[in-house]
Specification:
alpha+beta, seven-stranded mixed beta sheet
């Protein structure tokens, strides 16, 4: 099991990859940085000859990064958590551990083993409630947005 969620899809395009990538390029604000900024385009990022790496321009869009590779009418799309959110959620998962270390160093607790359960709950809450739930909801919205633009004919979840 990975610390951060990730999805990989095998896709089929009704037309060739050049048409799909041209459509995506027309709807993408081209930039080297995957940073959320105000634009009238659907995506922000990079579109190359046979691949792309974009985020959605919606207010929730920077949470997931979509990267894709096409060969003819077939390809793959990988959706993963943006690096910024990986760092933020890692910090949130480390805060309960830091609180235990500080509590133990001050010797404020008589039975330190009683702190293990709340710390584990805090880490699991961040990982499975905050990160996983947001990833599932936002990745579905972003994939639907991408499907509307490049007209995917078949999507198969691989991982």
């Amino acid at each position: 099991m990975n610390l951060f969620p990730e999805r990989v899809y095998k896709i089929e395009l009704p037309e060739g990859s050049t048409i799909a990538l041209n459509q995506l390029q027309q709807n993408t604000k081209l930039t080297d940085l995957l940073v959320l900024e105000s634009t009238d385009k659907a995506f922000i990022g990079q579109v190359k000859e046979n691949s792309f790496k974009v985020i959605s321009s919606a207010k929730y869009g920077a949470f997931c990064v979509l990267s894709g590779d096409f060969q003819g009418k077939e390809g793959s799309i990988k959706i993963r958590l943006h690096l910024t959110y990986k760092i933020l959620s890692s910090v949130l998962m480390l805060l309960p551990i830091l609180s235990i270390v500080l509590t133990l160093s001050r010797r404020e607790v008589e039975k330190p083993t009683e702190l293990i359960f709340p710390v584990l709950l805090g880490i699991l809450f961040v990982r499975f409630i905050i990160v996983e739930l947001n990833f599932r909801l936002i990745s579905k919205k972003v994939l639907n947005r991408l499907t509307g633009i490049i007209k995917l004919s078949a999507i198969k979840n691989v991982a």
